[in-house]
Write a structure and sequence with these properties.
It is a single chain. This protein has ten helices and 24 strands. It is of the alpha/beta class. The protein folds into two domains: 195 residues, FAD/NAD(P)-binding domain (3-Layer(bba) Sandwich), CATH 3.50.50.60; 154 residues, FAD/NAD(P)-binding domain (3-Layer(bba) Sandwich). Strands 3, 4, 7, 8, 9, 10 and 22 form a seven-stranded mixed β-sheet that branches. A hairpin with a 2-residue loop joins strand 1 and strand 2. The longest helix is centred in the last third of the chain and has 19 residues. The two termini are 41 Å apart. It binds flavin-adenine dinucleotide. Flavin-adenine dinucleotide binds next to helix 1, helix 2 and helix 9.
């Protein structure tokens, strides 16, 4: 016998059943987009989204917030306003997936069963992977921040910076939108100029990679930007510890030396590590899959959700699909990638419901990174699993010839066009 619970949250009444045909975990970019499309296309009526948060964020604009050219409030909407009509919202946290029993356990200890499950809870930041990092992130006066967690703090840190070493770095784990740590660097460098402190500043980019960007034509443009802005590049630098007292970021050196340019930044060597003393530090957070996904036995050896990279179906549990940041996919973790993953999941899900497991629609690893290179300038990196540069033909409509080159129209797309498409198309289940 099915159990029905009706409860009231603010002005909205939600009905919680104990079984749904399709359950979606996460009301972020992936969860809302997939549920909205299933409903808008009339492919599903019995669907719920499990999401504990009160607010939904357009995270791609947080880089612009950090650079003081976008309002944080404009990146935030209430979760109730993005929940698609026709889906039940279970405002709980998932604590476990019992995949063998087609069951999800919630933090109120209730269990919900499903026929099909779509998992999109994003990723989790784990600052403990770099000792000392949490302490400096929590300290309002440390000069350390991240647009990934608190873009307003980054904005303050940029404004307060009076010169010295401005270090931009990232951890060795996968992160969301791998280009964001350099986008905020290019903008901060310009902000330092406007503030009249650039002459007293050394701007350093230290990363574990061996190249500024993996896609050749984009790399060529970005190297020109780096040289124009006189940025110190340090490749093969694996961030291992922060010394909050001495303000030193410690690195172990990898083999990825790359096309680096050791300008005039002093380093300290100790116990086989290299230290960079900083006055300002920006980093992306070390990131992992949420614990409940791992504890439910759904991850691969690297700790990410073990889905087939083309069908997005879980490798062991055929009625489970994974999308977004949680998925073990060899491409960049972005909302743009989700835009291309959702139609594939929807198509495959429909086939599966009809007992057909021959999935001919495949996700080709498409992802994109809008690399803001200055106030008013941007490069758009679009690529696939093979590392091919795959610019969207629609860009021709915007009179953008070569999107691997800096263009003011691409900046307009980032600041105005993409947020519009996100809220009005992607979140509403419309094709984009
Ligand atoms: C600074 C920054 C810049 C970025 N720039 C770009 C860009 O320019 N272009 C681009 O395309 N992308 C960009 N991204 C990346 C993009 O925002 C993410 O890739 C995208 O939001 C991932 O969607 P998701 O659904 O996987 O996760 P999210 O959107 O993070 O949503 C996950 C949801 O799951 C919920 N959740 C978590 N745990 C549970 C649980 N246990 N139970 C139920 N629900 C749970 C969370 O509350 C959250 O609402 C950027 C991100 C950041 C932070």
């Amino acid at each position: 016998m099915r159990m029905f619970i009706i409860y009231t949250l603010a002005q909205n009444t939600y009905t919680m059943k104990d079984h749904y045909n399709t359950l979606v975990i996460g009301g972020g970019t992936g969860g809302i987009m997939v549920a909205s499309q299933l409903l808008a296309k009339g492919l599903e009526k019995d669907i719920a989204i499990i999401e504990p948060a009160k607010y939904h964020y357009y995270q791609p604009a947080w880089t612009l917030v950090g650079a003081d050219t976008y309002e944080y409030e404009d990146t935030q909407r209430t979760m109730s306003s993005v929940m698609p009509e026709g889906a039940d919202w279970l405002q709980q946290k998932v604590t476990k997936i019992k995949a063998d029993d087609n069951k999800v356990v919630l933090d109120n200890e209730k269990e919900v069963t499903y026929d099909y499950l779509i998992v999109s809870p994003g990723l989790k930041h784990d600052f403990s992977l770099v000792p000392g990092l949490q302490e400096v992130m929590d300290d309002p006066d440390s000069g350390v921040g991240s647009v990934y967690t608190d873009p307003e703090k980054v904005k303050k840190n940029i404004k307060r910076f009076e010169g010295g070493v401005a270090l931009f770095t990232q951890p060795t784990t996968p992160i969301k939108c791998g280009g964001a740590p350099q986008k905020i660097m290019y903008l901060a460098e310009s902000a330092f100029k406007k503030q009249g402190v650039r002459d007293k500043a050394k701007v350093v980019f230290a990363t574990n990679g061996g190249v500024i960007f993996g896609i050749k034509p984009v790399k060529e443009t970005l190297m020109k930007v780096v040289n124009r802005k006189n940025i110190n590049l340090k490749f093969g630098h694996n961030l291992v510890e922060i010394d909050p007292k001495e303000k030193i970021a410690w690195y172990e050196l990898g083999d990825n030396k790359g096309e680096h340019n050791d300008l005039d930044v002093e380093t300290i060597e100790k116990d086989g590590r290299v230290g960079i003393k900083y006055d300002f530090l920006h980093t992306a957070p070390p990131s992992v899959a949420p614990e409940f996904v791992k504890e439910s036995g759904l991850t691969n050896e690297a700790g990410w959700m073990d889905v087939d990279q083309y069908s997005l179906q879980h490798k062991k549990y055929k009625n489970i699909f994974g999308i977004g940041d949680v998925a073990a996919l060899p491409t960049a973790k972005t909302g743009a990638a989700i835009r291309k993953q959702v139609p594939v999941v929807i198509d495959n899900l429909e086939k599966l419901k009809k007992g057909n497991e021959h999935f001919d629609k495949k996700y080709n690893g498409y992802s994109s990174c809008p690399l803001v290179t200055d106030y008013g300038k941007m490069v758009l990196a679009e690529f696939d699993y093979e590392g091919n540069f795959t610019p969207d033909p629609k860009l021709k409509w915007m009179l953008i010839g070569d999107s691997s080159k800096e263009h003011w129209r691409l900046w307009m797309l980032k600041k105005y066009g993409l947020p519009y498409l996100y809220w009005n198309k992607m979140m509403k289940g419309k094709d984009v």
